[in-house]
Amino acid sequence: MPIKFRCRHCQQFLGISDSRAGEITNCPQCGKAIRVPALDGTVAPIPEPKLNLKDEQLADALSELARLESDSEENLTKSQPIALPELQSNESRVSTPPAREVTAPVTVLAEPVAESARKTTRHPTSHTTPIEEDSHEVLSSLADLAGRSTSSTSPRTEQNNQWKLLVPVLGFLLLLAIVVMMRSGDGPDASSIPVTDDSQDTHESEPEDQQPANLPNDVSVPAITGRVTYISDAGDSRPDSGAIAILL
What we know:
The chain is mainly alpha-helical. Among the domains are: 1-46; 155-184; 186-209 and 221-248, no CATH class. The chain is built from five helices and six strands. It has helices at residues 56-78, 90-93, 113-122, 130-183, 197-205, and strands at 3-6, 13-16, 24-26, 33-35, 229-231, 237-239. The chain has a two-stranded antiparallel ribbon. The protein is elongated. The protein starts with a strand and ends in a 9-residue tail after the last strand. Residues 123-127 and 197-209 have low confidence and may be disordered.
């Protein structure tokens, strides 16, 4: 049976007779030296190549190569330049066109009328055309309308400014009048303030006919006496030292 293996250089799959097991041969694909595996599958390493100076075939091959190189160098040095055909000059190929006759330029003198025209354009006359008069009238009418519009709008703006100033003043006066009317009522309502039973008993025990000493009999002065209390979380009635009574 043939021995099948791969080249270790190019990985080409090869097959060789088992009679050549363990020998050194050249790969048909890459040409490098390889060793055929033995029958048990082992591959012995290839020995390093050595230069044999007594090899006549090698000496002949080297001498032949040297001779070929020397012959090629002599041929290069002795080679003559290649004669190229002469090229025609570009000047001969290009045909020069015939020269045209040159005519002398004609000089034309400027007329003095142009200067007078320039003067007239630079310094216009004082006479106005009808179109200019119409434009002046339109501009004057526009200016009059603008003055009227500004004069008509100025009183309106002054009135608006006056109203803006009067609104907060009127509001303040109205608020002040409401406060004065509330304070100038007939008298406070005694039922709106909680009073304890002791204060009511003392108030009832006082004589009804008793009046202040320094006041006339026909003047009535509203007055409330008593003690303000509050009910705690436990249900007890306790005096309220920080209470404020508002009389309207």
